[in-house]
Amino acid sequence: MSFLAMGTVYGTLMNFRGEREALGAAMREPPYKAPPTAPVLYLKPSNTWSADGAAIPLPPHVPEIEVWASVGMVMKSPGEVAGYVLMNDLTVPHESFFRPPVKHKCLDGSLAVGGTLLPAAGADPSRFVVEVHVNGTLRQEVRFADLVRPAAQLLAEVSEFMTLGAGDVLLLGSDWGRPRARAFDRVDLVGNAGLGRLGNILAPEVA
To answer: Which of 5, 7, 31, 57 could be stapled to 168 by a disulfide with Cβ–Cβ 3.0 to 4.6 Å?
Structure first.
């Protein structure tokens, strides 16, 4: 998957059942007072994109970062998916689940993008499984059968209020229990069904 083929990248919050269950009553507290009834999205601007194998810088004020393993739907045209790609949406730990602070989601290089685009034809996102390894140790297994809104439903609901054009990417979400990593750690995502691998080393940011 080349950055040249990417348009706007949108992340999706609270789209895993485990995440909803873990948040529980917190979603009913002010100011929201109820779980969201529509997809909750956020942007990953181009300054956040990193290639497979790249060293990702961690600023001095970020001692550790959460690994948000996901799969992105890459659009061919409005309403039509070209394929799927592994993505690692590294995020500074935070407490706001409806509206993550922009500075926590938009660190330079914090969205690692896999180099393999799995064609949509014949692919079944509900069968996707992504393993998260930190320094060679399996830390999480993300099963996309556990989505609140499966891929087709998520795209249909998002398309009701915005148009995704060719090259735009919609992340399916990230499950609860996200492992954390620090500078000098290596993070690898290993996908099944032809998704391939995505690996990066976290490096202290050079002033």
So the answer is: 7
Cα–Cα–Cα angle for 88, 90, 93, nearest 5°? 145
Residue pair 36/161 in contact by the 8 Å Cβ criterion: no
Go through the chain and tell me how many residues it has.
Answer: 207
pTM of the model: 0.93
CATH number of the domain that 36 lies in? 3.90.850.10
C-alpha 151/C-alpha 147 separation (Å) is 8
Give the domain extent around 32. Answer: 3-204
Query: What is the per-residue pLDDT across 141-181, written as a single tens digit (0 to 9) for each?
Result: 999 999 999 999 999 999 999 999 999 999 999 999 999 99
Number of structural domains found in the chain: 1
